[in-house]
Amino acid sequence: AKGGSHGMASAQRMNLLQRVEELQAEVATLKRNYARREQEHQVELAEQRNKLIAGGAEAFATVGTGGNQGGNLGGSMLGGSVRGPERADVQQVRVECQRELDHMKERFAAESVSHEKTIERLVAEARSHEAEIEQLVKEKEELTRELIQVK
């Protein structure tokens, strides 16, 4: 009878060891994915920041030269005097540029929050896997003690 129960414990132990290895591989994969996503996130943040800066520079260049508002507006701005409807056009461009910048900042902030939530979720998943592994290791140690007692 002892041999039979020993066989069961041994099979259980093998299953447990296999499960621990699977979980460790899963955690390693999660950590790699997390690192890759974090890297992608940093690249995205840098790209967004550059777009924001480029957008801001372009917006101010547009305001500064009169840009799409036409040659005479650009000319009068360069001449240093902007009057009447031309001043309203410049003001309109400034407002539109500011609105676009604000919109980009909001979108950027929302995406950052979304990425942070994804990262938090991944970290929570990794922690739960680590807790499972700790539990399995404890069970394995108990089984090992039982095995020693059986012998």
From TrEMBL:
In this entry, which stretches build a coiled coil? 13-51
UniProt lists compositionally biased (Gly residues) regions at 65-82
Question: According to the UniProt record, where is the region Disordered?
Answer: 65-91
Q: From what superkingdom does this record's organism come?
A: Eukaryota
Which keywords, in A-to-Z order, does the entry hold?
Coiled coil
Q: What is this protein called?
A: Centrosomal protein of 162 kDa
